[in-house]
Amino acid sequence: MNDGMARILQALHEADGSPCSGAQLSDTLGVSRAQVWKHVTSLRDRGYRIDGEPGGGYRLLGVPDRLFAEEIQRGLSTVWLGRTLHYFDEIDSTNRMALDLARSGAAHGTAVIAEGQMAGRGRLGRSFHSPPHENLYTSIVLRPELDTAQAPTLLLAAGVAVAEAIVAWLGDAGPVRIKWPNDVLLHGRKTSGILMELGAEEARVSHAILGIGVNLNVDPATFPDDFRERATSLAGFSGRTVDRAAFTRLLYSRLEDVLDAHARGGLAAVRSRFDAFFDMVGRSVKVHQIGDSVLEGTVLGLAESGALQIESSDGECVTVFAGDVSLSPPVVQSGGSRT
């Protein structure tokens, strides 16, 4: 969106439904009335509902369900996250674009957002199902002051932010859980995946790309067959359509808060918030690791490094730094309490 369109859109938003005359917009913005009309036409082409009658001025009646930077940043409460935001209707991967931006010197907090991804990526080289205009796909450039050994805790901190945003949106903390290391579950089904990619100079992180996908309005019935029984969306769970721009603002706010706390004190600073969503302790797991090895055991807890600690079937305590985790169902006592 060019500067003229953005300024007219801002004026129409500020009018809050009251008419703005072409002459008023022309004088305020210092452009001709013909240029005002061209900008309004372009905004309509982007999906904005703008009423305009001769002598009656222009009124903004509705905004499109699109994650335009102007809509995300309007009302955004963050200080540094998302203040520079690159929007794409379709892209191969938001992480790939954010990585290119980071290598070109993009500032801490620069965000990329896309309506759809042609080659969305998950952990361990998997593809990520990314239908257009229904969910949230965003990647953020971070430049943390961290050793590479501490970097994995950023992934856990991001999970806290996503979980808190979902709770704030749905108003019920009960069904939201974090599955180590990068999934957020809603009533046991995946609703968000998080991917982190690092750049390093010697033993220090030069940049981290944090990619977050959240299923918002997609119909779970449209998921691929092998994914349908394991995933859901906020709308599919609640029965209510999600205002995607408003949810994105909420997520960015939570993410900035959690990352600021992490920058001050590492994982320990957000550990209690993480533990509020972490119920894997005592549960049986299978961890598929690199090289096709499989570790089976019981989760003991989380190490200070963010690694998962597991008691193997032969009684050995094993520290797992990466892998694909399959969980057993949680144990439920007679009375319905979780153990």
Characterise this structure.
The chain has 339 residues and is α+β, with helices and mostly antiparallel strands. 32% of the residues lie in helices and 27% in strands. It has nine helices and 14 strands. The strands form three sheets. Strands 3-4-5-9-8-7-6 form a seven-stranded mixed sheet, sandwiched between helices. The protein has a five-stranded antiparallel sheet with strand order 13-12-11-10-14, with no helix packed on it. A hairpin with a 2-residue loop joins β7 (183-186) and β8. α1 crosses α3 (33-45), α2 crosses α3 (33-45) and α6 crosses α9 (244-275). It is elongated, with a radius of gyration of 23 Å. Residues 332-339 have low confidence and may be disordered.
What are the SSEs and their pairings?
Elements (H helix, E strand, L loop, with lengths): L2 H13 L6 H8 L3 H13 L3 E5 L3 E6 L6 H5 L11 E7 L2 H10 L7 E7 L18 E7 L9 H19 L5 E4 L3 E4 L2 E13 L2 E11 L10 H4 L5 H5 L5 H32 L8 E5 L5 E9 L5 E5 L4 E4 L3 E4 L12
Helix pairs in contact: 1-3, 2-3, 6-9
Number of helices: 9
Radius of gyration: 23 Å
Q: Write down how many β-strands occur, each being a DSSP E stretch of 2 or more residues.
A: 14
- Low-pLDDT stretches are 332-339
Distance between the termini: 52 Å
Summarize the main sheet. Answer: 7 strands, mixed
Classification by helices and strands: alpha+beta
Strand proportion, as a percent range, falls in 25-35%
Can you write the helix and strand succession as a string? HHHEEHEHEEHEEEEHHHEEEEE
Share of helical residues: 25-40%
| Shape assignment | elongated
